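Q: Make up one entry.
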Amino acid sequence: MCGINGILHLQLQKKVDERVLTKMRDSLEHRGPDDKGLFIENNIGFGHRRLSILDVSMSGHQPFLSEDGRYVLVYNGEIYNFKEFYPELKNNGFDIRTTSDTEVLMKLFQLHGLKMLNRLNGMFAFAIWDKLEKKLTVVRDRMGVKPLYYSFYNETFYFASEQKALFTAGVPLKIAQDGLEEYIFNRFVAGENTLYQNIKKVLPGHIMTIHESGKVTIEKWWDLKKEIQNQPKIKNPVEWFRETFDDSVKLRMVSDVPVGVLLSGGLDSSSILASLHHQTYKDIQTFNIGFKEKEHNEAHLAKMMAEKFDYGFQTMQLEHKNLYDKLISSTYFQDEPIMHLSEPHLLAVSQMAKPSVKVFLSGEGADELMGGYVRYKALQYPSLLNSIATIGNLDVFTKQPRYEKLTRYAQINKKSNLVIFNGSNIYPNDIAEIFGINTPPKNEYRKQIYKEAKSLYPNNLRRQALYFDQHTYLCSLLDRNDRCTMGASIECREPFLDPRLIVGLGSLEDKWLFAGKKWKFILKKAMENRLPDEILKFRKVGLSAPWGDYITKSPAFKDELESFSKSDLFQMSYFQHINIQKLVQNLQKGDTRMTPYIMPLFMMHIWMKTYATKF
């Protein structure tokens, strides 16, 4: 049930333009190829594209109207525990006429209003128009798994699952200076702001209410800090984790269409597969992206796991012209310059899976909840970073990419910035030296989240970084997952992001996360009897790719690299001090240290050339 988009005019005398609404809706056809709908009444208009997952009949058609005619709903996502509410709704006089979670969502709202939100286990972005009170209520799920963008422009309120629908409606595509600065320093724009002027995000766990008078209120309905503080002590963490995780996987298997697993071969996705096998699910299909470069490849492990559990397995590699084409496509679906650099691969594997499944299970979120990134280790002993900063010119530090990056990171001297820039690839000193840009972004939202993290976990930089990433970096990963999988008309679900796991893990002592050589201790303990040592002890790879080699050695990128060196991007005043020819020449000579500097600029060049010209 995806592809929510609609418009609400704030002027009573101004009627909805059906042609504009239809164009907005159909710009998101990839999010919902199975059905489409419109609702227009004077100055309010909803459009919807549907990907049919639960109740694939026309009973789940949207926009969805309440039986009394008062409410109109457009909804994107899944309420995994929707059947739990059947007895309660029936006892309160509601008939259940479909097997769709959309109907349950509507009737729960009629019965309880927004007080029902904390009882929902799911991912969702939805909007409800109340004809009686003349107000629009817009809601986003706890972690922001489902996207929701909006704009107040030309006396109209527009909202949509993707920015392209807003541009289609006529909202101008203009880069925001603050957004550009965050993209360069932090890789993505965090919080409610975006790369664009006039376009914002509804924050995860927030409600936005727009009255016809024009009054707007925003409130937080789910506060992770308070939830962690109120979490009762977990008596047997490993048993609790295993049981809750299995139940989360089971809940996310609710579907009337086939569900597959996005299987990297790493610990997280293999744990999902092991849980499915433990719960005796049959005929599961798994999908993998492989790499010819051994240091980036986990396909052999994924294949081993699928065969171990007698599940189907498909893998592919993405190279040369195919990689270039998928880069262009993923930039379109992303609506912004790609920044994780795995978007083309995720889109390609999703498109490969589409003939077989409509839903993916993904291991996203485990690293941010349990300390899975190597970069967190630098925060274990902050005093050591000072030592590294002073001896960083030794060969051992400059010739090994990971140590070279650590040396640059060690130049950061404020603890708050150690957390705020922990997920960056290049740091303020690097950007000043190489790009000639000396002023970091304001980062107001990041600073607010850091303040929360510090108050929840005082004197604990590692836990602060986890909390910080759960509100920032993870949001960008979830957006990437949603855009790439929905670009292939597949819905992505994340079992690790069950609210019970998020809150419970946040309340545990450090030893349950950071013990052992590679951390994520509780997950390894919970899975030690289900997974082989090859998975439990394998060096983390993640979905990474050697982009420096791709753009310098692949024939498909040869012309693009030449175009990049002369890009209009470097006519922008913000980038006027960058000697891009020198950076590219150094990369072509084999200096891989240039890769983290070049890639954000290269991806912005691709975006300017192929996306920004469409609107």
